[in-house]
Design brief:
Elements (H helix, E strand, L loop, with lengths): L1 E4 L1 H14 L6 E4 L13 H10 L3 E9 L1 H5 L5 E10 L16 H9 L5 E5 L3 H10 L9 E4 L2 E4 L4 H7 L3 E5 L14 H9 L1
Helix pairs in contact: 4-5
Length: about 200
Amino acid sequence: MLFVGGDGTAVDVAETIAESGSDVPMLGVPAGVKVYSAVFAVTPEAAGHVAAIFEETEQAEVNDIDEDEYREGEVHTELRALAAVPVAEQRQASKQLSGGTVEGLADGFVDETSPGVTYVLGPGSTVGAIQSELGFGGSPLGVDVWRDGELLAEDASEAEILANLGERNVVVVSPIGGQGFVFRVGRHEKRLMKIV
């Protein structure tokens, strides 16, 4: 079962396969904001290659996070299922979240901000720490626009981002939630990609 999406979709696919009593393997094309499970190929191209040539399967973790906790800045993965997946080097490992703080990064970033520059701030807890240092809460799953101490747009659409850009603009992003991805094709991330 080749599917496109993120961890929420992976959970749905794994549960559907389990309920049907089938032993069909699953493989995800990574295209969601949350991609913590070990059932995804490393790229869409790799997914096609693995699906075409795999010869054996193994059990892998299907993880997901609580989106309400994520919006509060907490990222905790939860094992939701085990699923049969192709054995392949081009498949992601289950992502383990590491501890640590980003306060120093956020402080350094704020020290380097410049008057008149528009900052387009992407999703995630690392960028969220920068937003806190700038003096606002922001949208942990969306895109915010800030300039000269003022939040110009929160959880902004493409049109809102474009309307608030200035002469000098800086896009601020980081790998999302320990996944190693900067941009996925979630609602806001796709919109930001058009600007970059």
